[in-house]
Design a protein that fits this description.
The complex is a heterodimer of chains A (556) and B (316). Helix content of chain A is 38%, strand content 16%. Chain A has 556 residues and is an alpha/beta fold. In chain A, helix 17 (439-456) crosses helix 21 (530-538) and helix 20 (498-521) packs across helix 22. Chain B contains 12 helices and 13 strands. In chain B, helix 2 packs parallel to helix 3, helix 5 crosses helix 6 and helix 10 crosses helix 12 (290-302). Chain B is elongated, with a radius of gyration of 22 Å. The chains are: A alpha/beta (556), B alpha/beta (316).
Chain lengths: 556, 316
């Protein structure tokens, strides 16, 4: 390097990372402060607008932290690799710490990642993607991760990485100065995530992710609607997609709100998958950690194709991915744009969706249970006890046809939701007198049935009855002689198509599993162990005639 | 343009001067001078015509009653005449065809159109089974408010008796009934629930002296035909199939273990006997495990003891 007297060039590299979809790419933030050249402050390396604006935030934050900003020098920040588009405000911290380290001659500890948005007063703010960065740190061998305090719980989910929670820039500077001089008691200790208490009792009541309609309804709060509740139980147990059909105001949305409460809790692996998607979308709240409740998404029927399956110049997850491992509730199913619904076909089948855009393609997981709700006819009051339907048969028929289509093929259960007499609803009414089963009791059965399926299907590459192909149905769904007879008769009577026929068998399999759970497993009074499940599966588990008969109630 | 379909096919016409022109129709005040028709004209088709009319917005009760009464009487060579509208009209045509009878549809529009257009299947079936489609209008004359009323006089004029299954007050069905009375034909009406809108018209007719119809026997009686030859009321006949016999028919797929006790299926059947219920109401009344009730109900349906219509379950 050729320097004149009194001139200096200072260069430092700070490590951070760019998120892309739910993946992460390492980004090295190169900061150069030169005394030669026209004074200025520039960021290069395909910065998005949010990154370019970082200059003003960084400069003000440094000055407001009582640190001198080298205004008279030429500052160049390069975000490498230079051809990857950078988005997000979390480059503030690496840029600022780069400049400060050059000004104050501070050594940056090795194998450290910096992440965070600056406030003008020098404080640090929560931004999206902390978990993704933390996972990246672990995979790429970075031992320390410096993040805003609000993002620390999220980042600390990965126990292998030392996460340091920061309140402001000054705190970080003093920490780095002291650690450079090997002083003790520098004030920063490794942050522990509350998520380490994983497995605590959190099932969704009161704690909801996304735009839940109801904030978690318990089954015991729903009076009547025995058939719909039973159908939801079957759907939850076998991960069957389900459609509720009923007039406005009969409680479809309430039933939908209760659906997540009977789903088994997310296990750690699933929880990580879900949190990654939410982290990438910026939906993890400040101070938030692992998401432990099943997502419940209910997009409005005007949702666009991109909103549903994901999209954007830099692809962002759509509703099908935000509902991953949870429930996608499509209210007013028939009102949804047909093209948007059709686009859900592939993600529903594959369990993931690849969104390709000009700036690359990203794959998001999308394994969810579809819960659809619809009116029975255009006016909504077909077969209503009190109201009169104003539709002609032709209109009703047209509406039905609108409902059908490729997505309906993926729905195993159909259930009519009828209006409950208001007399029954009032306190002290007929329905009130019965003891209603709580979500917890239902969830126990669902969970046990879930384990039976996982064990039975473990070598088939699928997890639930709903995913069984016709070939697997033949293997795993033996029917008793009577059951077969009944099914054949039903086929003639109801004119069942081959597809409906297999759907009925799949649903009957789940009903049989639930029956086994009540009789054998839960009935024994002890929690279901892995041995119980295996012992159960060793026995003949033939689908009986009453299982098929019940399954036929939910046919199309 | 009105949603109707143009139909090609052989169209014929019969004038009032033709000796084959229906006698009863000729008797009315303003018979159509020409009847355009599709299908094969047979004079004996008009010997024993029963006009069946009713609400477009029929209830499930209306549909079931129309179906029950008509399928039981068509074997006696009765031709069902109706207006091809959706609702009771279509149900009447359908029931007649299902019972193996012949039916005549009188259109409110030109003979070359199908109205309502979505009932093309029914239209073809009427013709395929030796029935007729009639209209006093040629070509593609559109159905208009007044043509429906004019059409009603043909339905009434062709019929020896007019059966009103369900009707709202001030409805076209009542117009047909009034015309029939004016022509000296018998007017029959099916009673319904006093709370149902579609029963107001029929109950009004009964109050004014229309003959109340409670069974197929009553209809045959009104037409001057002998009974069904069963010696019992139809209602009683159904009663005989109820109770202990349910669930014990030869084709039953499963056997109830505890034969000493009343089986769940019998209990369900007995509960449904007095009134149709939806599954929630049924579970409420029968009590006990919902899944068993649900499964038993399906058994009853598959055995034909119970029918489901519009979300309600009926004991047959």
């Amino acid at each position: 390097m050729w320097l004149r007297k009194g001139e200096s060039i200072m260069l430092i590299k700070i490590q951070s990372a760019a998120t892309y979809g739910i993946g992460t790419v390492g980004v090295s933030v190169e900061v150069n402060v030169a005394s030669r050249g026209f004074p200025g402050f520039d960021i290069v390396g395909l910065p998005h607008k949010s990154v370019a604006e970082s200059r003003e935030r960084v400069k003000t934050a440094i000055q407001n932290s009582g640190i001198e900003f080298p205004s008279g020098k030429k500052i160049i920040v390069n975000l490498a690799p230079a051809d990857l588009p950078k988005e997000g405000s979390f480059y503030d911290l690496p840029i600022a710490i780069g400049i400060i380290s050059l000004v104050k001659n501070i050594t940056i500890p090795k194998a450290s990642l910096f992440f965070g948005e600056l406030s003008l007063d020098g404080g640090l703010r929560h931004t999206k993607g902390a978990l993704l960065l933390s996972i990246f740190a672990k995979e790429s061998g970075f031992s320390s991760l410096y993040v805003p305090r609000d993002s620390a719980n999220e980042a600390a989910v990965v126990p292998e990485v030392n996460v340091y929670a920061l309140d402001d820039l000054r705190q970080l500077v003093s920490h780095l100065e002291r650690s450079g001089r090997r002083e003790v008691g520098n004030g920063l200790v490794k942050h522990e995530s509350p998520a380490d208490s994983f497995g605590s009792d959190l099932y969704g009541r009161g704690l909801v992710v996304g735009n839940s309609v109801s904030g978690g309804v318990d089954f015991s709060e729903i009076l009547g609607q025995e058939q719909a509740k039973r159908a939801l139980e079957i759907a939850a147990a076998g991960r069957h997609n389900i459609i509720l059909i009923g007039s406005p105001g009969v409680g479809k949305s309430m039933l939908a709100g209760a659906f997540t409460s009977i789903l088994p809790p997310l296990d750690r692996e699933e929880s990580l998958e879900v949190t990654k998607i939410y982290s990438a979308s910026g939906f993890v709240p400040p101070g938030g950690s692992l998401i432990r409740v099943r997502p419940f998404r209910s997009p409005h029927h005007t949702v666009s194709y991109a909103g549903l399956i994901g999209g954007g110049a830099v692809p962002k997850p759509g509703e099908v991915s935000l509902a991953h491992r949870g429930v996608l509730f499509l209210d007013e199913f028939s009102e949804f744009n047909r093209a948007a619904l059709e686009s859900m076909r592939q993600p529903m089948e594959a369990g993931e969706i690849t969104v390709s855009r000009g700036k690359g393609s990203v794959t998001f997981p999308s394994r969810f249970t579809l819960l659809a709700a619809s009116n029975p006819c255009p006016c909504g009051y077909l077969n209503h006890t009190k109201m009169r339907c104003r539709c002609t048969p032709a209109q009703v028929e047209k509406y039905r046809r609108k409902l059908s289509g490729p997505i309906l093929d993926r729905i195993d259960l159909q259930v009519g939701v009828r209006s409950v007499e208001t007399g029954e609803l009032s306190f002290g009414g007929e329905a009130e007198k019965r003891v209603l089963e709580s979500s917890e009791a239902v969830r126990e059965r669902v969970w046990a049935a879930d384990r039976i399926q996982k064990e039975r299907l473990k070598n088939s590459g699928i997890f639930s009855n709903s995913e069984m192909t016709n070939k697997l149905i033949k293997i795993f769904c033996p029917l008793s002689k009577d059951a077969e007879l009944l099914l054949r008769r039903a086929g003639e009577r109801f004119d069942l198509s081959a597809r409906s026929y297999f759907k009925v068998i799949k649903v009957a399999r789940t009903i049989a599993d639930l029956a086994a759970v009540s009789d054998v497993l839960v009935g024994s009074g002890t929690p279901v162990s892995a041995e119980d499940v295996r012992a159960f599966l060793k026995k003949e588990n033939i689908i009986q005639v009453n299982h098929v008969a019940e399954a036929l109630q939910y046919r199309f | 343009m009105i949603a109707s379909l143009m139909m090609s096919g052989a169209i014929s016409v019969i004038s009032i001067n033709n000796p084959g022109y229906p006698k009863l129709l000729r008797e009315i005040k303003n018979p159509p001078p020409n009847l355009f028709y599709k299908g094969v004209w047979q004079n004996d088709l008009f010997d024993n015509c029963l006009g069946v009319v009713g609400s477009r917005r029929m209830s499930t009760y209306g549909r079931r009653v129309a179906r029950k009464l008509i399928t039981e009487i068509v074997a006696r060579g009765i031709t069902v005449v109706s207006g091809f509208m959706y609702g009771i009209d279509a149900a009447a045509h359908q029931a007649c065809l299902d019972g193996g009878g012949k039916t005549v549809a009188v259109m409110p529009c030109g003979i070359e159109m199908i109205h309502p257009a979505d009932q093309g299947d029914l239209y073809r079936r009427i013709l395929d089974t030796g029935g007729l489609v009639l209209s006093e209008y040629e070509g593609v004359f559109p159905p208009l408010a007044w043509t429906y009323v004019k059409r009603n006089r043909i339905v009434a004029g062709l019929s020896r008796a007019v059966l009103v299954v369900e009707a709202e007050i001030n409805s076209g069905s009542l117009v047909t009934a009034r015309l029939a009375k004016g022509y000296g034909r018998k007017v029959l009406a099916v009673p319904g629930e006093i709370t149902s809108e579609t029963s107001r018209g029929t109950l009004g007719l009964i109050r004014q002296g229309a003959r109340m119809v409670c069974s197929a026997e009553d209809v045959l009686d009104a037409l001057g035909l002998q009974g069904l030859g069963l010696g019992v009321e139809v209602g009683v006949e159904v009663e005989m199939r109820s109770g202990a016999e349910v669930g014990l028919s030869a084709e039953e797929p499963v056997c109830d273990g505890d034969s000493g006790q009343e089986s769940l299926e019998t209990k369900i059947y007995k509960t449904l006997k007095p009134e149709p219920l939806d599954i929630e109401e049924l579970a409420e009344k029968v009590g006990g495990d919902f899944t068993s009730i649900s499964a038993s109900l399906m058994m009853l349906i598959l055995r034909g003891n119970v029918a489901e219509e519009g979300g309600k379950y009926y004991a047959n």
